Amino acid sequence: MHIVYGGSFNPPTKAHFEVYRYLKRKLPVEKFTFLPVGGAYDKESLRYDEHRFKMLKVMTEGYDDIHVSDIELTDTTFQGTYESLKRLRKNDERLAFVIGADNLPTLHRWKNIHKMLTDFEFVVLNRKDADLDRIINRDHFLKHYRERFIVFEDFDMPLSSSDYRKTQNDELITPRVLEYIKQHNLY
C-alpha cells in the first residue's frame, strides 16, 4: 500500500512524523510519501517551499520507505490533490491519501473530490477526539463514500505547524529540523 500525506509542513513537526510511524503499525505500508503543497496553492501562511521540502528530507533521512515529493512544489498552477495522486500512483497500486478528521466537513468542496474518492482511499486520522463514524454517517456526501475511508479513531496528535510558528517551542519538532531552522534562520 502506498500512503500519501499532503500538507504545508511549515515546518514539519513530530506529529507529522508520528503519522508515518502510526500508519506503519496499522497498515501494510510499502511506501510512504510526504507531499508538501507548493506556492501555487492559495494559502496565506505558506512560505519557504524549498526549505519545507528540505526539512522533510532531513526529518526522514534514513527511512528507505519514505519519499518526499516535490511535484506540487514545481507546479506553476494549482492542479489539486487528485492530479497529484494520479501522478504519484505507479500502475494499479493501492494508494491512500491521509487527512485529519477536521477535513471531513469540507471534503465535499475539494477539487475533483468525486474522482478522488472513486480512484483512491482516504486514511482519516482523529483530531480532538471526534466521533468519526458519527460525522461520516450523519453527512450524506461522506456516507455515500463510506467504504473509501479507512478510519482511525485512536489517533490524536494535538500539535501542529502553526503551534510551532506561534510558540517557537522546540519540543514540537525533531532535533534535525530544529538544527535546519536555526541554520537557515527560519521562523
| Radius of gyration of CA atoms, rounded to a whole number | 16 Å
Count of DSSP H/I helices: 9
Q: Name the structural class.
A: alpha/beta
The global form is globular
Strand order of the largest sheet: 3-2-1-4-5-6
Under CATH, the homologous superfamily reads HUPs
CATH architecture: 3-Layer(aba) Sandwich
Give the class-level CATH name. Answer: Alpha Beta
Question: Which range does the strand content fall in?
Answer: 15-25%
How far apart the termini lie comes to 35 Å
CATH third-tier fold name: Rossmann fold
Structure summary, number of beta strands: 6
Helix content: 25-40%
Succession of helices and strands: EHEHEHHEHEHHEHH
- Indicate the mean pLDDT: 92
Unreliable spans = none
Q: Report on the biggest sheet.
A: 6 strands, parallel
- Domain tally: 1
Topology:
Elements: E1 2-7, H1 14-26, E2 31-36, H2 49-60, E3 66-68, H3 71-74, H4 81-88, E4 95-100, H5 113-119, E5 121-125, H6 132-138, H7 140-144, E6 149-152, H8 161-167, H9 175-184
Parallel strand pairs: 1-2, 1-4, 2-3, 4-5, 5-6
Helix pairs in contact: 2-9
